[in-house]
Design brief:
With about 300 residues, the protein is an alpha+beta fold. It folds into two domains: about 150 residues, Rossmann fold; about 80 residues, no CATH class. It contains nine helices and six strands. Strands 2-1-3-4-5-6 form a six-stranded antiparallel beta sheet, covered by helices on one side. Strand 4 and strand 5 form a beta hairpin. Helix 7 packs antiparallel against helix 9 and helix 8 packs antiparallel against helix 9.
């Protein structure tokens, strides 16, 4: 049973503390006195939806706390024990809603999702009014009342455990079946790929060559452009190129009679460089002439 309700900064209520004892309690008041607001606040601790509009104007947050005596509610005690949320005192549900619209729920001081508040609240209390849902309309309540009336609670728990095991076993079977389908599909894919590779009959190092050729084709435009630029810089640029510079340098150095030994060595090196540049240009031209850049081949 509900033994205590505390409401802070909810709607028009700045502060409210309500203590309840066993037996029947009656709260009366004229229209607008706040009776429905009190019930709405209690509903929030039981998992009802809300937004920032319920926060009292000027306040940072609304804070509602409800305490329940569980001596006569064994289902609620079992629910808490199953989730390690039980304690020796009353069950305390708390809901905090900030002015920004964030909502936090607590069961016995432990943060919890709104769904847990709602599930536990359905075991703790019924709110009977014109617009509120009543537990008598729920199939779970029908079954519970029938089992209690017939004294079949133990049998009902056994059936529940058996149903849980059956569902778990069915889920395991479905996972294994899906896993088998995935393995068969992968086996078919790998078999197809293996047949394709065997049909190609690739020779030694042919795969690496194909991969390199694929890279070349993927960058063909850039590769050809770079080669043409290098040829232009080395031999074809009328404004100045490497071969022209080497030829001019050799002509100037070889114009001396009886040049020093060190100068002769420099001439040999420049002559060797000229030959190597000419060979490099020739290799680049042959590469351009024989390069097939057709991506469809």
């Amino acid at each position: 049973m509900l033994v205590h309700l505390s409401v802070h900064n909810y709607a028009i209520v700045e502060h409210l503390d309500l203590e309840l004892k066993r037996g029947m309690s009656v709260i009366s008041g004229e229209t607008g006195a706040g009776k429905s607001i009190m019930l709405d606040a209690l509903g929030l601790t039981l998992g009802d939806r809300t937004d920032s509009s319920v926060v009292r104007i000027g306040a940072d947050k609304a804070d509602i706390l409800a305490s329940f005596d569980l001596d006569d509610i064994p289902d609620a005690r079992a629910w808490l024990a199953k989730r390690d949320l039980d304690n020796d005192g009353p069950c305390i549900l708390r809901r905090v809603i900030t002015a920004e619209g964030r909502s936090r729920g607590y069961i016995n001081g432990t943060p919890c999702p709104q769904g847990d508040l709602k599930a536990l609240g359905e075991l703790l209390i019924d709110i009977h009014s014109q617009h509120e849902h009543q537990s008598l309309l729920k199939l779970d309540t029908h079954r519970r009342l029938l089992d209690e009336y017939s004294g079949s609670q133990d049998l009902a728990r056994q059936v529940q455990l058996a149903a849980q095991r059956w569902r778990q076993t069915r889920q395991s079977l479905e996972r294994l079946s899906n896993s088998g389908d995935e393995q068969r599909a992968r086996h078919q894919l790998l078999s197809y790929q293996l047949e394709e590779l065997e049909t190609l009959a690739l020779g030694e190092d042919e795969l690496e060559q194909l991969e390199q050729e694929h890279k070349n084709l993927a960058n063909a435009e850039h590769l050809l452009g770079v080669c043409r630029q290098v040829i232009d810089l080395c031999s074809e640029n009328d404004a100045g190129n490497v071969l022209s510079a080497l030829t001019s340098s050799l002509q100037r150095l070889t114009g001396f009679q009886n040049p020093p030994g060190a100068l002769g060595e420099a001439v040999n090196l420049l002559s060797s460089a000229q030959i190597q540049v000419e060979e490099a240009v020739g290799e680049l031209n042959r590469f351009l002439d024989h390069f097939d850049s057709d991506p469809q081949r």
